[in-house]
Amino acid sequence: MTSCTFVSTSEQQTDSLGRHIGVLCQAGDVILLSGELGAGKTCLVQGIASGLGVSEYTFSPSFVLVREYRGRLMLYHMDFYRIEAIEEVADLGIEEYLHGDGVCAIEWADRAIALLPDQCLHFELRYVPDIEQSREVRASARGSRYEYLLQRLLTEMKDFARWN
Ligand SMILES: Nc1ncnc2c1ncn2[C@@H]1O[C@H](COP(=O)(O)OP(=O)(O)OP(=O)(O)O)[C@@H](O)[C@H]1O
Ligand SMILES: [Mg+2]
Q1: What is the CATH number of domain 8-142?
Q2: Ligand 1 in contact with 142 (CB < 6 A)?
């Protein structure tokens, strides 16, 4: 496993980190996101969407488990915050999304971790005490595809990252 921490000091910087990830993504990639409410998971996914060339990212307020966006590749944006039982995710036909032709970005992934692949890129976002606009984004890559992706991301974003 490879891991590192990026430090973002604004919403725009988190978006930009996401955009770099989106540009590097390929079909079948799985990105898991965790962290407290308001930590910036959706902000990172919006960046991923723009990096994938999604021209219109509309966030409907209605509760749905999966939103689909068309870009260079399909983006399947999932949010498991409100699930009450893991069966809801199984019923979604999650396997088809995970092994399909697009990229899956999954918020609150820890709520259905048993159904998700071991090999993935995981981002955990954390508030930085006393610095309102600051977030620590800890990235861990499991599996050679994701280790490669994270190395590439680090090369591009090295000013915002530290190894740990
Ligand atoms: N450095 C930063 N990166 C990302 N968002 C930031 C940052 N600083 C402040 N913010 C603010 O934090 C909020 C992040 O909201 P966002 O919806 O992305 O969080 P979330 O982790 O998806 O929450 P939820 O668990 O409710 O889905 C936004 O209001 C954004 O403006
Ligand atoms: Mg969110």
Answers
A1: 3.40.50.300
A2: no
Distance of alpha carbon 63 from alpha carbon 150, whole angstroms = 31
Establish whether residue 14 lines the binding site of ligand 1, counting it when its CB lies within 6 angstroms of any ligand atom.
yes
* Residues whose CB is less than 8 angstroms from the CB of residue 142 and which lie 6 or more positions away in sequence, other chains included: 1, 118, 119, 120, 121, 122
Question: Does residue 156's CB lie within 6 angstroms of at least one atom of ligand 1?
Answer: no
For the stretch 33-87, pLDDT in tens is 999 999 999 999 999 999 999 997 776 656 789 999 999 999 999 999 999 999 9
Closest ligand to the CA of 41: 1
pTM of the model: 0.95
Closest ligand 1 atom, CA of 45? 18
pLDDT band at 1 (very low <50, low <70, confident <90, very high): confident
